[in-house]
Amino acid sequence: MIIGRLLREHRNIDLLLVALQRELEIFEEGHRPDYEVIRAIISYFEVYPEVYHHPQEDLIFSKLKRCDPDGAALVGDLAHEHQEVIDRLHHFARAIDGVLADREVFRQDVGKIVRDFIVCERHHMMWEERDFFPAAVAALSAQDWAEVASALTDHGDPLFSETAEAASDALRAHILQLEQEAEAERSALAFSSALAGNPRHNAEREGPH
């Protein structure tokens, strides 16, 4: 079912938010995060939610407004919500670009921008799952869902195509792999630093004088 696919996409998006939150923690501790991971996450959000995920939801919402205007009004303004998501993403991307370009930016300001992005993304998905999706499931008929599915596949670059989904999965897997490698490298450095600062370990390595 289409809603099931959207829910899976939400779970996949949250995996990336977890990785981004970890990089934010590194940044806020005063260390250098893995900017390759952060830029890859930004690229993912610029393409898949913005180009594929949100248009699916917008189409469903247009059906909901036709089938149940009162229910749609209770849900709220989805188009406005999606525009705010885009605006937050661009604000986030500009902040990271500023850091990478060595422009004078305050660390706490960048941290707040990234944290706001994470919190608001999660709130947005929770709102959709709590209010929008149930309203759509209750109001749309089987014919409505068939028309939604048809609209999403009747063009050259279908939103529900296996190619688009496979590309999304591959990019997400690549980002999560980058995050795992960054965590492994940080753990190794922390372990080496701990050993270097351990007098007993150093004495054992040097042996008796």
UniProtKB/TrEMBL annotation:
Gene Ontology annotations for the cellular component aspect, listed alphabetically: plasma membrane
Hemerythrin-like domain ranges (all copies): 2-136
Domain of life: Bacteria
PANTHER family membership: BLL2471 PROTEIN-RELATED (PTHR39966), HEMERYTHRIN-LIKE DOMAIN-CONTAINING PROTEIN (PTHR39966:SF1)
Protein name: Hemerythrin domain-containing protein
UniProt organism field: Bradyrhizobium pachyrhizi
